[in-house]
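ok trying again, last paste got cut off:
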Amino acid sequence: MKVTLNWLKQYVDFNWSPEELTERLTMLGLEVEDVQKISGAFDGIVVAQVVTRDKHPNADKLSLCRVNDGTGERQIVCGAQNFKAGDKVPLILPGASLPPKPGEKEPFTIKVGKIRGVESHGMLCSADELGIEPESIGLKKEDGLLILREDAKVGQPFGEYLGRSGSDVVYDLEVTPNRPDLNSVIGIAREIAAVTGNELKIPTIQFLNTESEPIGGLLSVQNDEPELCPRYTARIVRKVKVGPSPDWLKSILEKVGLRSINNVVDITNYVMLESGQPLHAFDYHLLSRSSGCESAQNKLEPTHVGCYTPKIIIRRANEGEKFTTLDGKERTLTNQILLIADETKGLALAGIMGEKNSEINANTTDVLIESAYFKPQNVRATSKKLELRTDSSYRFERGGDVEICDWASRRAAQLICDLAEGQVLGHAIDNFSHQTPAKPITLHFAKTKDLLGIGISHQEQISFLTKLGLTVAEQTPGICTFKIPSWRVDLKREVDLIEEVGRLYGIEKIPATPPRGALGANAFDSVYDQIAEARRILTGLGLNEAQGQTLIAKSEVRSQKSEEIVALANPLSSDMDVLRPSLLPGLIHSLRHNVSRKNYNVALFEIGRVFTQANGKTQEERRVAIALTGLGELLFWNGSKFEWRFDVFELKGFVEEFLEQFGVRGASFTKRAENTPLFLESAAISLGGKLQLGEIGQLSPILAKKYDLRDAVFLVELNLDLLLARRNPAKSFKSLPQFPSIRRDVAMLVLETVTHEAVLTAVKQAKITNLESVELFDVFHGKGISEGQKSLAYAFTYRAADKTLTDIEVNVAHTKVVEALKTQLQAEVRE
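nice, full thing came through this time. structure:
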């Protein structure tokens, strides 16, 4: 919502500076997103007339001009080509500055100077240099100078010519959805009036030009959907002269970002911004007629408006009905969309935008003003369905004041009479199906102190609320009941009234109170600390944390059965229609986001909740996931770095180190025999071979290509809830060894299917005394190795805690190891 300082002052008197108004609005709950000062933007710029235009003596593409600035003639050098002698153009005089463009810190100041050896006393200006759109002031857009109308007065200040004389400040406000009354200048002025105690000056409406002919003989309204349109008013203004708006109206609309169209349309926009009530103006003679004289059926005869009776019908659109909106786009409607129509065609999408077939044009003489209240949910659904957002739909979506419809209609009619010489026709048609008065709210004054923490007198509380438009219905000692005005749809409970009291008293006046602390514990504290520790460990391993969306597209889910997916009943979009059953889709998107920005080496982790469905119930669990792609890097102190390509063993190492530091020991990896929709190769991670912890693997190259990931992608996901339940963070310590170790190496041939895990299991089951460690240091395929076999080389380290082992003792133990390998794995030990 945009509003200007001077516009607000038309409705309430206050002497705050622009900066103080910004602070006051913020403390009242209106977030000021931007403040734009319009002060002297066109100072030193005047309307000038080109007297002569000659060729520059020293440059082919420059012109030497004599221009009249209203006080005399001066010499100007100009590079534009689109003007001639006699044209009137903006001239900026020496010492004046052009309005700064976006991104410029300082304005550009004009000085007397020589251009190719010839003095120039000023500069002729283009629209871009002035920072204005030619169409917004009724001029043609073209390359070169801004050519003004012939009736422009030579020497007139350019700001005055535009109707922008005087400084102003434009405020861009962020209005919360629960305060639709603040989507209007009057609504904001009402807040200021409540704070200052000054009178709110609502415009008085008095029709000077009226016709006594009753409107009932000229128009009827049929409301087929009173639930979707509780109130519809229609008023006719005759003998209208459509033309340009006056400068003051153009200036106001332009300041708040609206383009001037014509006086009638501009008035409806002005009243919408003023009151918060959107209006729509139809050309009365473009409505279909149901009966009347034959001549009126065949041509427009404004003077014989009474010989036929159009009917406005408020109905649902027919399924598949075509409708061309004012933006020129044809749209296909459904029967859930509310339509304003006549007996043969649609006229407007209720609360959003009109049809081209009934818009105000240069030939319009009789205007039908629509002012209505539409159900917010229906307007919001239609706007979303058609992907069509307008200032009107923005206001109707948030609800509003059903009582203001007639006032806004009368206000627009009055302005049309004043600015377009129209004549209001009798009374309006007011189709008000059902009126529900606001429920009174009772305020207990003591409750105000309980919630705000300060004492505010009873009379002061009543004063604050009545300044906002509430009226006292009943008062007893300590209690007061208030009637709620129609524009305050957000006031529903006692606590809402207390909030209003706090706002007007001044939030900044309420003293800050240190929170009363108390030592205590909660079961979640321990969980939070453990999750924080998991983050610390993963970050310490060189991974970066990612935060993914909880809502994802169902098409992204590949690891779950469809019946296990938790779908949203009313998704915002097809990209966010299910709750994530896994963290991996989000991590894959994060990888794509990085790679698309040429960050090819990525190592991420995420901790978060996932959601699945079983037996009709939604289950929620915490998980931790890691994603790697590209190269790993290790930086050295001298600036050099060591790089290596990520692979599944690198990821396995991350998992093993994380589990070790987190206190989960005994995890094993079991390769899956078949591919899955997500993984090219994968392995199950379990605890003790039974409890399933998660899965690790390489992303399918087909999926990697779909997400534009050029390098192999390696993923792992673990059940964090299980890890939290099974972890043993206690660490044991033992003294450093005092006696030397002895190493024995074994090289053996085994079947290709034998895993490292199987070797460790065989050695463990042999229960070898003094065996300190087992390390795989070589895997070999190739020359001398039969097909279906591989060569594994292990280092076995032996050490005793209480003595130095002899070769004989080590040989006896090592022989048992070799025999276990031969027996359990059918290994062929290579001598």
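cool. The mean pLDDT is 89. The longest strand covers residues 602-614.
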